[in-house]
Specification:
Elements (H helix, E strand, L loop, with lengths): L3 H32 L4 H4 L3 H24 L2 H25 L1 H27 L8
Helix pairs in contact: 1-3, 1-5, 3-4, 3-5, 4-5
Amino acid sequence: MSDVPRKTEWLDRAAVLLSALCLLHCLALPLIVAGLPVLARAADDHLHAQVLVVVIPLSVVALGLGFRHHRKPWIVWAGVAGLAILVAGATIAHTYYGPRVDTAVTVLGSIVLAVAHFYNSRGTRQPAPTAAP
């Protein structure tokens, strides 16, 4: 049995946790800000771009190591799509369309990326495929 599952397990779990935290941030922050006007200044900060500095390398390593084990390219492509959507939310949507579109795009990207990491984690726990003779 390969040691890849043990190496990627914590990376995938961390990536899913970060996606969940991002989702929580995106959905809860507007409610908190609306309910507590004192925190309105905190809402002006753009956290999505800073979080990408952690999310992108973590996801690339986890998905890359996972692919070496399970050899399922669709999982990697789903992760790439999720990352691309997150980057689009943090850059284009935030700059040109405002916080509502930024939040919607970021939530979508977080969900896509979390699903990719979920299947990456499942794929690394299964026996590695063997080459055909």
